[in-house]
Amino acid sequence: MRFQDLVRYFERLEATSKRLEMFEILADLFRVAESEEIAEIVYLSQGALLPSFHGLEIGMSEKLLIRAIALVTEKPVEDIGREFKKNGDLGRTAELFVKGKGRELSILEVYRTLMTVAETAGEGSVEKKIALLADLFSKAQASEAKIVARFVVGRLRLGVGDAAVLEALSLARLNSREHRAELERAYNFCSDLGLVAKTLFENGLEGISKIKVRLGYPIRMELCERLSSAEEIIAKIGRCALEAKYDGFRCQIHKIKDHIEIFSRSLERTTPMFPEIVQAVKTQLRVDTLIFEGEALAYQESTGELLPFQVTMQRKRKHGIEDIAKEYPLKFYAFDLLYLDGQDCTEQPYLERRNKLEKLIKKDSVIELSEGLETGDPKEVQRFFDEMIERGLEGIVVKRLDAPYTAGARNFNWIKLKRSYKGELSDTVDVCIVGYFKGKGHRAQFGIGTVLGAVYDRETDSFTTISKIGSGFTEEELSKLSEMLNEIAVPHKPARVESVMTPDVWVEPRYVVTVTADEITRSPLHTAGKKEDEPGYALRFPRVQGFIRRDKGPEDATTVKEVIELAQMQKRVKLE
After folding, report:
1. 30-44: average pLDDT
2. What's the whole-model pTM score?
3. Are 199 and 207 in contact (CB under 8 A)?
């Protein structure tokens, strides 16, 4: 397919504010794509060259892109910079300056050039990157240059989510949306939409059924449901395993002999953040191949006290890891085994996986097994829960003994009990920022007064609003947040956002914040859980805790289903 044809589809995706229309455009695109280019099309549609777990970045700033445009157009850098400052869009700037008629660029030619740019490193790499990009612009039409420029600086912003891609693939290739679940199962094991798409195109559903656990490809992590009491939990699943719930950084570790990779719950490669865990896995775990999960937490070495999540999150930086590691060393609490020496363990019952993990993990200064016990007694559940709360932990996770590891799923195989519910919202809610309202008075200097927060609706693959949030941010955080949100601002409501309110500025759903509130109420101003004439759900007196949750992607936000369950828990306790 010509790159120009792909550009037209991307322009249609950019222009729509309707989720169903976005889905239809994607399906149309996949119908005309060829098998040798479908993976690249999927990656490009999500603004990436490869899945996030590869950690590959283009590595070009706005200034370098401006230099590339100047090189190919023979215009002064200052002229291009002035135009960019005026319109705020390097894509539009490139479109204005690159006047060529193009040379019938193919999708693969553009993709391979961008891959070369991303992979170019070492001495003289900056000039090489600029030259490669300038050469690509010299072969591009103006509209193609616009898309390339936006892609390079990470501002393509088509709003295409994983669920939309899977459903569009199912409809385009199998003439029905009904096969999305089979595609999603494969995706949950490999976390690579391009691989799923290519496999479907080349080998159909038979090939999809053969996608299993792969070393080096993160498995999408299993998630918890909520219940409000020990009695409810035992009534639901009977005899069960209890584990401490740590407020840390969830990690999935892959070991291939001496090669170690660590992935976050949002599937990003985080290996450089945890050098001591990498070393401990190499020296402590005497197996050739392994995938296991756990929670990394910073702790106070002198007292052994586990530190809050925000301290652990200081590891998420490119420089100074060694200094942070010395100041705040880590504990890693392992809690599940997914793969061991060539054997996929995800289909095995939890109890069998736990027993194997227990034999594997020998406690040392870094890695140890998460605390836990087995019981069928609600009183024992409550006792263990109270003990964990008293020690400053979040609560407990309760696991069904005979359950497999269900990748990417949220079900009652895992149940979290975080606090007793007393009629108010005692738990936190993770919301995705979808827009903001400009500040007034003192806050006018920051450009942001409140943000518009949304929760995720898995059934419709959409973000539905639940609150305006202004409390909890420091002035320094507001200033930083203003910069971050302006970089992902979009001209109209994103297609996957459902909102009655119209903020001053819409933004691409990307950043998640953790919010506490007094309670969940019903409100006609919000769309979370809204059905026909019934009002939606809203947070009363919301306050942000900490800052952006870098370990969570937009689809990791609290779901509408969870919000409704939390509201029902409140109601039950109030009635009691």
Report:
1. 97
2. 0.86
3. yes
